[in-house]
Design a protein that fits this description.
One of its GO terms (cellular component) is extracellular space. GO terms for molecular function: structural constituent of cuticle. The structure is a single chain. The chain is mainly β. It is built from one helix and five strands. Strand 4 and strand 5 form a beta hairpin. The longest helix is centred in the N-terminal third of the chain and has 15 residues.
Length: about 150
């Protein structure tokens, strides 16, 4: 009987208490539906450029064109060893990227002749710091309290 009374009192108390406050989230992202992705139409393009600077020796070129589905291109660059690397490539969604690489010239590694000649390494002379000598010890004078103040009687 006591258990029944306690349960009844708790049920009444729970019914009278207000529900806890849970605010709505400030941001609710839109649901993601992968099948509703926008697919952009493929667009054909073509471009090319080339640089041949005799002063610095920079020499490279690139050419690429696409019909919207297949890409074809070519680029060439002079390598540091003196050879020219040529790459012809095609790329599409089915065959992936396919490249044909060729080289012109022979690899050469000429000796580097430079006007700069570094001086031989010569360490600075070693001068050790002087040995440590502590300052002479002078103890502080003994503490002597000031005379106590004694008021004079008038």
């Amino acid at each position: 009987m006591k258990v029944f009374l306690v349960a009844a009192v708790l049920a009444v108390a729970a019914a009278d208490s207000p529900a806890p406050y849970h605010p709505a989230p400030a941001y609710k992202p839109a649901p993601y539906h992968p099948q509703t992705q926008y697919k952009e139409e493929a667009r054909p393009f073509a471009f090319d450029y080339a640089v041949n600077d005799h002063y610095t020796g920079t020499n490279f070129a690139r050419n690429e064109q696409s019909d919207g589905h297949n890409v074809q291109g070519y680029y060439s660059v002079v390598l540091p060893d003196g050879r020219t690397q040529h790459v012809k490539y095609t790329a599409d969604h089915y065959g992936g990227y396919n490249a044909e690489v060729t080289y012109d010239g022979e690899a050469a590694y000429p000796e580097q002749h430079s006007a700069y000649k570094p001086a031989p390494y010569k360490p600075a002379p070693y001068h050790p710091a002087p040995a440590y000598k502590p300052a002479p010890y002078h103890p502080a004078p003994a503490y002597k309290p000031a005379p106590a103040y004694k008021p004079s009687h008038y």
